[in-house]
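Long-time lurker, finally posting.

We've been working with AcrR family transcriptional regulator (Streptomyces thermodiastaticus) and I want a structural starting point before designing mutants. I don't trust myself to interpret raw outputs, so I'm hoping someone here can both generate the structure tokens and explain anything notable. Sequence follows.
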Amino acid sequence: MTPRAGLTTERLTQAGATLADEVGFDHVTVSELARRFDVKVASLYSHVKNSHDLKTRIALLALEELADRAADALAGRAGKDALVALANVYRDYAREHPGRYAAAQFRLDPETAAASAGVRHAKMTRALLRGYDLDEPDQTHAVRLLGSVFHGYVSIEMGGGFSHSAPDTEETWSRVLDALDALLRSWPPAP
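Top reply, 14 upvotes:
Generated this for you. Predicted structure of AcrR family transcriptional regulator:
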């Protein structure tokens, strides 16, 4: 790799994230990235080990970007306002960066996951849930519920599953968030 090429691990990760948004996260490879930079694949191996390493780096970048957006959106908010803000961060990010959003779902090894911004996501979600006065294990159940609903809705919407019928998805999204808020406010105590 010539210094002139200006390739760094960070630049390749950013380019891989852009590539993921353009062609889909599943189609990101070191070979495709090398084509984008008009260099030989071997030239990239001093910066990334292989396609799995590249995808892991893109996943970490996506988790960091999402966590930063979520922190900004949640600042000073509580209760339903915080719930809506967090939900909209995920939905907006998925719409703007579909490949990166998919990358954020990439399974990381336990050590990498523990050092990732995924931990910040969990802490922010738990902080949001303190406004609903949930104790354990209900808080963990609620974290899983929110993640499932946000990701499920966004995935179906992005896949075009709601595009062929009325009412508008904005109305449904609003109702989904209203229902989540009502559910969290009346969450039954653990048996």
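Before you design anything, note these points.
The mean pLDDT is 92.
The radius of gyration is 19 Å.
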